[in-house]
Amino acid sequence: MNIGIDIGYYATKAVVNDRQVVFPSFAAPFTASRVSLNHRDAIAIESESGHFLVGDQALRLGQGARQESAQWLGSPEWLSLFYASLSELTTATNFAARVVIGLPLADYDRDKRAIAEIVRGRHSFKRNGRRAQSFDVSDLRCIPQAWGAVLDELLSENGKVRNEAIADQRVAVLDIGGHTVNYLAVDGLADIPAESRGTNRGTWSVVRAVRDFLDREHPDLSRHNDHTLMRAAVDRRIFDGQDKIDLAPVVNPIINDIGDEIVRTARQYWGQGAGTYRQVLVIGGGAHLWSDHIHQAFTHARVLDEPVMANARGFAKFAAYLGENDG
Fold this sequence. Notes:
Shape: flat
CATH architecture of the largest domain: 2-Layer Sandwich
Strand content: 25-35%
Strand order of the largest sheet: 3-2-1-7-9-8-5-6-4
Oligomer: single chain
Order of helices and strands: EEEEEEHHEHEEHEEEEHHEEHEHEH
Radius of gyration: 20 Å
CATH superfamily of the largest domain: ATPase, nucleotide binding domain
């Protein structure tokens, strides 16, 4: 089974063949509702690391905290997200997986060996309402997250090269996530270290601005978790009881500020030669929030279809490619 996984600070994404799943990267210690009409839709994962609610139900019922530090890699919460993604992709009780997983560019050199130790090998877990599942990860590849966009454009679902032209092009990728922005430069399917960097100011900066506003003006609403506030920021509104609060005056200035920063940083890393890139691919959860800023600076920039899923989609295609070419 060839699997691509992208566990971000906002959402966990996973792909196998033509099946893809996404859910909030939020895990909380398991608590069972006394009465629930949607219990079958909840994701509860039990393993040696503990028993956790995952995703939307964890947001509604859990008391955990969103993670914003690389130290969460390999934590019980991180593992529960990893297991939950596999449980969403397959109900098989025993299987082997070739996994390609991504790390932010800023963390890649530091954490790639640690993630290999965590993921490679034998795993077992149980999802609520199912038999236990066990799987082996014998082949694991960890690559920088933004590479998923290039692989998504290069390869078909079965791992065959479908776009040979990109192999000879200079391609730039802007991967705008929750906590990080990855700036990747690729030439001839090799990344250019001097022009590839990662920063730590992504879409969660918008959430912090919203929370600061609510702390001052509507303190009762500060009890909302960060994922709920992110949705409110995207919608530019939130409700205090029946009263609608317009968040546009709060959200729009920070959106503009971060958009300007993304463009400045891209020009800093890519120099005055940004026009030498045949393509500028835009992916990640913040792709649509900042697409106008990016397109004004780089008129040939293009947001990929379902940009939130682009990394995981490219990783799954790369896993299939490895299966066809590793002998």
